[in-house]
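Q: A small favour: would you put together sequence and structure tokens for a protein?
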Amino acid sequence: MFFVRTYNFPLQVSKEEFMKRLIGRHVTIHNLDFEIYDQEDRLCIVPHAEQVTEIKTLPITWIDFANENGKTKVTIKSSIRQIDAGGPMLIVIFCIFLLIAAIILSISSGGDPKITYTFLGLDALIYGTFWVRMKNGYLDYVHKIRDYVKDRTR
């Protein structure tokens, strides 16, 4: 999936202490509440977006633990909610089709680059706008959740 982000770091406190510091807590990011709970020896961070009226692309985050060489390694994996994945996937697929169409038109037009450049410019404009929106929305949530979890290890 395009929108999965994984981050690893060593744990500086015990796993039990770390879990005690996080379980049951709420994180507020951009006036949106995220709850942390235990799910079969891993932590899950889920947004409470029941009251949100505007369209948002939100992550669900899992925190896994692994023992390596006597130390505990934390893996934070964020992925887009299934309900939010449709729109971004359609935009990415549309941009890929525009790129393919530009390549095909470039080969078949035989020297008229106007249409090719128009398609490439439109593709770059749509994808650039999409990426900026994802960077300010979804990816910002992912980074702030990751920073919150990492700060709790100290």
Q: What stands out?
A: The helical segments are 15-22, 86-109, 113-136, 138-151. The domain at 1-154 is CATH 3.30.530 (Alpha-D-Glucose-1,6-Bisphosphate; Chain A, domain 4). The first helix runs from residue 15 to 22.
